[in-house]
């Protein structure tokens, strides 16, 4: 594995995991769309942003143990795809990026020794 491809495999799941969290966090802004006062909308926002923060915690744990991110992201993609199986566009938009990040974390996990000695 070349140095460039090794760096891409090492960093792409981490960066894409953070970007997926940023993308999913946009959906939590729905809490502010009900013409409520800011203080009244904050509990709804907290409920919507909590899963994203948990997913961000998974990215942080996966920084060291890539297999955790691989299992969690891939598992969430499968669960979401099953739960929304009647809406193909939802599956592609939400489960697609989760699956890509999960597969990249798993691939990075399988190459862990080679990637971390090449730094």
Give the gist of this structure.
The protein is mostly helical and 119 residues long. The chain has five helices and no strands.
Task: Write the SSE topology.
Blueprint lengths: L2 H24 L11 H25 L3 H18 L4 H23 L1 H6 L2
Helix pairs in contact: 1-2, 1-4, 2-3, 3-4
Arithmetic mean of pLDDT = 89
Instruction: Report the strand count.
Output: 0
Structural class: mainly alpha
- Given as residue ranges, the uncertain stretches (5+ residues, pLDDT < 50) are none
Report the order of strands and helices.
HHHHH
| Main sheet summary | none
Strand content: under 5%
Into how many domains do the coordinates divide? 1
What is the tally of helical segments? 5
Overall 3D geometry?
A: elongated
What Rg, in angstroms, do the CA atoms define?
A: 17 Å
The helix fraction, in percent, is over 70%
Q: Could you tell me how far the N terminus lies from the C terminus, measured between alpha carbons in angstroms?
A: 13 Å
Top keywords for this entry?
119 residues; mainly alpha; 0% strand; elongated
